[in-house]
Specification:
CATH topology of one domain: Double Stranded RNA Binding Domain
Number of strands: 3
Structural class: alpha+beta
Number of helices: 5
CATH class of one domain: Alpha Beta
Strand content: 5-15%
């Protein structure tokens, strides 16, 4: 994964941040919106694109565009850095391939322990009942 190539393909848009903040927030665009067109990206192979589309399908638009917004800080530059870090983390997590799960059996001793515990619990509960006459 070449991060420099990926960062060059990112598009940024500055928006006015919402919420309280007085006069300053009404005239300064500090919120950053990051967009990345995954379908037309040249930094990923076709296999990587399909893997990312499959794993990030909840975060993508219909046109396979990833949108991220950041308005944590008052500075536009810091928000841009935070958005880039988030984006790179999302992409790195999306490219990880899980190793296949190996089916295992419980050991004989664990089976015996479980059955013994069940018998003791049943005995305990049976003792709580009223005796039949």
């Amino acid at each position: 994964m070449n991060t420099e190539l990926i960062i060059k393909e990112l598009k940024f848009k500055a928006i006015r941040s919402s919420g309280a903040g007085g006069q300053h927030v009404n005239k300064v665009s500090s919120k950053i919106e990051l967009t990345f067109d995954l379908q037309n990206s040249e930094s990923f192979t076709e296999e990587e694109k399909t893997l990312l589309i499959q794993k990030l399908k909840n975060k993508l638009t219909k046109d396979n565009i990833l949108l991220l917004q950041c308005d944590e800080r008052r500075s536009q530059h810091k928000n841009k850095e935070i958005a880039i870090d988030r984006f790179l983390k999302i992409i790195a997590d999306g490219l990880k391939v899980q190793k296949p799960r190996k089916a295992t059996k419980p050991s004989k001793s664990s089976i015996h322990k479980r059955l013994d515990k069940k018998k003791k619990q049943a005995f305990k509960k049976a003792f709580r009942k009223r005796p039949e006459i």
